[in-house]
UniProtKB/TrEMBL annotation:
InterPro entries: EmrE-like, Nuc_sug_transpt. SUPFAM superfamilies: Multidrug resistance efflux transporter EmrE. GO terms for cellular component: Golgi membrane. This is Probable UDP-sugar transporter protein SLC35A4. GO terms for molecular function: pyrimidine nucleotide-sugar transmembrane transporter activity. It is a multi-pass membrane protein. Signal peptide: none annotated. Pfam families: Nuc_sug_transp (PF04142). Keywords: Membrane, Sugar transport, Transmembrane, Transmembrane helix, Transport.
Amino acid sequence: MSVEDGGMPGLGRPRQARWTLMLLLSTAIYGAHAPLLALCHVNGKVPFRPSSAVLLTELTKLLLCAFSLLVGWQAWPQGAPPWRQAAPFALSALLYGANNNLVIYLQRYMDPSTYQVLSNLKIGSTALFYCLCLRHRLSARQGLALLLLMVAGACYAAGGLQDPGNTLPGSPLAVAAGPMPLHITPLGLLLLILYCLISGLSSVYTELLMKRQRLPLALQNLFLYTFGVLLNLGLHAGGGPGPGLLEGFSGWAALVVLSQAVNGLLMSAVMKHGSSITRLFVVSCSLVVNAVFSAALLRLQLTAAFFLATLLIGLAVRLYYGSR
């Protein structure tokens, strides 16, 4: 089974089982992210600065990578430290940082529902850069599978979950007092296209970088997250007055930071040993997990759009990874 077929070449059954378990764990963490954030709400609002959560997540990933190298889980390369190979990861950190900030600015020029639906175009941009930069050709069947992923994401974002209307005051759902009218400005559309292009480029560029360098994954992550910490530290410091770094954090917030840090490391392994396309399927499959957690924890109702999206995702997985 090849990387493009969803597996890892040359792996025996035990290691293939661990690879599958890693993908399932990443899918679960992606799906739990939004419900966990909702559980952090106090009086309908997130009590901490988003930049604090991003900075602490990057710092946690950096510390975990450094720890794995120090205890010998991954061997340090022989010879002089390859510091020169760290420089290309600055671009990866910059692209990821730009994308994270674009998400915030996009909300000024369109409503959240429009953003959720149209942001699925990043699946197409990732596939485009995957073919251009890594010189992989997708078959018509694989292209159709990715198209179904985009449609599934749009269906889920357009109405996969519904508030039954009996939300108690002060709960995370109480902020949705009424539907926001759909709108998008011309500048918002341009920024959205830029967001999708940067999202695809950052994913494929990082994959290309990690596969070309003959360095242990932990060391590559150390380079990447060092730049990530420096970048996000600057963004946090320049963000103006607001809550302190740890102000407003609760046990749920700490769980959000830890889970996102672990997931970042899992996605690095996918980039190193799998592909950006595998990451797309993990993110899309996480919609099902997100819906289940939202229904169980936040008392949201599943709609017909959710079941349609689930069907389309299953069909896409079958088309892309099934026997040809």
